[in-house]
Amino acid sequence: MLIIDSKDCENIDKALKKYKKKFEKAKILLQLRERQSFTKPSIRRRTEVLKAVYKLQVASGKFE
């Protein structure tokens, strides 16, 4: 649960902006999307390895 401390004189737009930043930093939306479907650990590891290989290829200049 996210709690935003707001002062009485603070504008509602500023409080909303603080809430949005805090929500994004907490990565709540990513957790919800991740929990929607189960992925096997082996598949999760495979995707991480493929991402790492892709990043290395981009860094070396094979992909543009």
UniProtKB/TrEMBL annotation:
GO molecular function, one term: structural constituent of ribosome
Gene Ontology cellular-component annotations: ribonucleoprotein complex; ribosome
InterPro entries: Ribosomal_bS21, Ribosomal_bS21_sf
One Pfam family cited in the UniProt record for this chain: Ribosomal_S21
Alphabetized UniProt keyword annotations: Coiled coil, Ribonucleoprotein, Ribosomal protein
Segments forming a coiled coil: 9-36
Entry annotated with the keyword Coiled coil: yes
Example GO biological process: translation
Assigned protein family: Belongs to the bacterial ribosomal protein bS21 family.
Protein name: Small ribosomal subunit protein bS21
